[in-house]
Amino acid sequence: MKLLLGLMDRIRPTFQHGGLKAIRPAFDAIDAFLFYVDHRTDRAPHVRDPNNIKRYMSAVIVALMPIIAAAIYFFGWRLVGMIAVTYVTGLLIELGFAIARKEEINEGFFVTGLLYPLILPPGLPFWMTAVGIAFGVIVGKELFGGTGRNVLNPALVARCFLLIGHAPYMSTGWSAPAGGWPGGFGKWSVDAVSSATPLGAAKSGLYADWGNLLFGTASGNGVSGGSSGEVCSVLIILGGLFLLLTGVINWRTIVSLLGSFSIVVGVAAWASPGAFGRPGRTPVEMVAWQLLAGGLLFGAVFMATDPVTSPVSNLGKWIYGITIGVSTFLIRYLAGYVEGVMFAILLGNIAAPLYDEIATWLHLRRLQHEG
Amino acid sequence: MKLRGGYNVPLAGRPGADVEVLPDPDALHLPLAGRRLKFTEVRVRAGQAVRPGEILAVDPDRYRVPLLAPRAGTVTVTGKALILRDLSREQEEPYKGEELNHAAHAGTAEALRRKLVDLGAWQFVGDAFTGGLPDPAGVPQAVVVITMSFEPFTARGDVQMAKRLTSFTRGLEHIQGLLEYQPIYLAIPAVHSELAEKVRQTVQGYAYVKVVTIPRKYPFDHPALIARRLGLRSGGGSIWSLGVAGVLAVDRAMTASLPSTVRIVAVGGPGVSKPTHVKVCTGWPIRGIIDACGAAENVRVVMGGALTGQAWSPEDQPGLCSECTSLTVLRDEAPRTLLGWGRPGWSQQSFSPYYISKLRPSFTERLSTALRGERRACVSCQLCEKACPAGIWPHLIHKHLFQDNLEQAEALRLDLCVECGLCSYVCPSKIELLDQFRAAKKAIADMAAEEAEEMREKAEKEARE
Known about the structure:
The complex is a heterodimer of chains A (371) and B (465).
Chain A: H1 2-16, H2 24-34, H3 53-75, H4 78-101, H5 108-118, H6 126-141, H7 154-165, H8 167-172, H9 198-203, H10 210-215, H11 233-245, H12 251-271, H13 273-276, H14 283-292, H15 296-303, H16 314-334, H17 341-367
Helix pairs in contact in A: 3-5, 3-11, 4-5, 4-6, 5-7, 6-7, 7-17, 11-15, 12-14, 12-15, 12-16, 16-17
Chain B: E1 19-21, E2 28-31, E3 41-42, E4 49-50, E5 55-59, E6 65-68, E7 72-77, E8 81-88, H1 109-118, E9 126-127, E10 142-146, H2 157-161, H3 165-178, E11 184-189, H4 194-204, E12 209-214, H5 223-229, E13 239-243, H6 244-256, E14 262-268, E15 276-281, H7 286-292, E16 299-303, E17 310-311, E18 326-331, H8 383-387, H9 394-402, H10 406-411, H11 422-426, H12 433-464
Parallel strand pairs in B: 1-15, 10-11, 10-13, 11-12, 14-18
Antiparallel strand pairs in B: 2-8, 3-5, 4-7, 5-6, 7-8, 9-13, 14-15, 16-17, 16-18
């Protein structure tokens, strides 16, 4: 450690005032990543909590690790290639903006860069991956001022851009998950057999088995697959529990989102079994199936809870969750799209400031007789 | 208002309950400016010999609150301070009542209040909401007496009260004598100690004293929060708030007509080896105090608590100011640890529940002045909102201040902020919220003053026409 610190100290002047001054943000980012910066407080409070943004973001990365491992098992090492392409493209853009703004590189992209490949079809071409994230980072985040100031979730902006602008790529890259041992750990990629995802197959009356939805395997009737990160529900639930326990994500968003979705799906299946139900199954089973299928859980745990793009008030979070839950139902059942979570969350992002307005007004009303 | 937020910062080095008496120094450096008071009107000449308790200077803008000589000695005047040399402990000058020394006034309420001011007791009183000095001639809507202090590390009320409970209760009686029918709220921490029981039993007999029990969490001891909890409004007149030292000073002035120059100062923090209370007086060399407590090399001395205090600079102010009741000593260092952000944090205590130290029984940490992270944009994690005891939304106020939108920040009730510093303490983006809020409050106050001035001028102009 001393050796490394010594090396960093030796090369520091080159980046601070030497020949490589232009890419100083890159050096600073690596320096701060390896060792804590030695900043000290210069005013009250003179002591500070050990929590910081790196720590905050790393909790999300910890929660994603098992999901990434599962995605590699199911779809091969190609996913790592997609993550690498995303990181290189995104970080170069971040570096460009950091240099132009004379700011430091933000940690936020490390999370975005992991989330984005996980919501793409496993077989999406690398160049497409790069185009998508470039759009997402530039339009979704940097044009609004960077991490902390964006209105929309950049990973979802990137995916939305690809889905609308390059629809064929986004609907043919589906692969059937690998099975057995070593599964995808022994392969670069699994064959893209354009098998329908559980939600796609359900439109034609073919419902995936419970085991496939929970664990991502392709046993039973063989209906499984989807975006890399969404297939194994169990790991998403575990990751979500971890983030809830560590307080990184807000339980209100999750409860209101999944709760409102369950209620509308259940009520619809009960009131009109012909249109919204499944022959021979109870509304409760229908709710459970819909919760586990597709990207709903992944979106609810990792996307909708993004603190920057969700409302800042607790009441706002409740309304926001309900907006997403109900919209997901409407899009899944009544629109031409197979999956509705992405559009629903983006819609929620757009509405978030409005919900905050309402919540702030009520908050101030409560305070008006204080002090 | 129900109590919410708050957090006990787990800082090592809590001062013990004993009070150490330090030998007199060679000279006392009495600063002419403190946090609230500015003693601009100097009453002594250079070279003049003074007696203990003599008025050296007064603050002409704040009810002529005096700076008293704590010892007999010879005065040297510099721009920022009065230096007292050739110190000796003599009997204090008996109180003559400089300002109102007329037979007609003796014994009147006005004379009694003047006595409190002249004998240095009034500076212990603050307005619960504004923190400023209330008008000694006015009558408050209530008095809040606070017997504890939860900020690390400020002088503990129990230490000062333990041996002088009789003086304390007598002081309460004297305060009651200044009031008409207004209640005195006595804030006592929710603890089951012998002293707390004794205090509760003693004040049971006083009809005008109402006991308020306060949970042991910083900053629930803040007078503004106690006042809000009692349903008092800032618009209903001033609320006097004072601590144990204040009540004892009132008793000393009213019972014995003696000035209060002695200070019990808490010295704590991880930077000293012997955290304790010391018995000193205004002007005492701060260096001498912290050395007596075993200060380490390379430390930052904070005048006040670790969260709200002001860093001490030896050149600007060598001596203790008249309002300083505590010194927090922190190691001034920020170690660079390899991949520090990824460590599970067995020995790191945090407000947020990420750290596995949550699995340990509670412990105090050797916090230094390290920022422990980098400054970033706000990500609306809401930790500040969870910690805020005032029930406001610091993150939202910050966003409006970031856009220079003072009006909106004011509308979000920035005025309820008690400046406890917890929002800055917990912020993972290391945003200086406390500093921003203090500056914004000052800007809003300045704007209001300017407006009032304009209105007054306009009214005057109209009256002339």
